[in-house]
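Table 4 source record.
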Amino acid sequence: MKYAIIAGGEGSRLAQEGIKAAKPLVEVNGEMLVDRLVRVFADNGAESVTIVYRDSMADVAAHLKTLQNYGINGRHTPITAVEGHTPSSMHSLFAISEHLEDAPFCLTTVDTVFSEDTFKSYIDSFTTAISNGTADGVMAVTEYIDDERPLYVAVDGEMNITGFLDEKSGCNFVSAGIYGLKAEAIDVLRGCITKGESRMRNFQRALLNHGFRLKAFNIGKAFDIDHATDIAKAEQFLHSAI
C-alpha cells in the first residue's frame, strides 16, 4: 500500500493564535503531526510515503530529511519528499501524482487526527474492496462536523457514495479528509487539471462522473488542526480512545 500526505498548508491561523511551528511540525500528544501519520501508515503496511510540502518551509524540509535518514524511533519507512507551492489540495496531489500512478494509495492531509484502531479498520475495508473488485475507492467520512467549510457526503443504504455536496441537504456525513483510491484515479485527476479545475471536492465529484464506485467508511471522530483549541480537543479524544 502506498500512502501520501499533503503538508503544504502554512498554518497561518495557528500562528496567529501563538503556535509558531509550521503545521506539519505541530505537536499533538507530544508527537509531530507528520511523524504521527508516518508512524501510523507504517503500522498499516506502508511500502512508501510521499509527502508534498510548501517550498518555503526550510524547517519542514530539514525534518523530512531527518525522517528519511533515521526514521522514527529507529524504524525506517521509504519517504519521498516533494517541494511545491500549490493553490489547492487537488494541485498538491497532482504534484505527487507520478509517485502514485501504479498502485492503490491512501492520501490524507497532514493536520488530520483520527483513532489509530479505526484507521486500521478503514485500511482493511479499503484493501478488501479493491482486491474483491467491489469498489474503486473508499473515502473516510465522519458525523463529527469540525470543519469551517465541510464537504457533505451523500450515501445510499449500503454506504455507496452518491454525491459530494457543499450544503448539508439531508446528509449525515462529511468528508474526514482521508481518501483511498485505485491508481486509475490519477487519470481523472490529470483531466481535472487540464480543464483548469480546482479544489479536492471537485476532483471527487469528477470521480463519480467518470463512473468510479466509491464507498464511504465511518471513521468516527476526525479532527483538522486549524486552531490552537483543536490541539486540546484532539489530545482529549486520543486519550479517551486508549
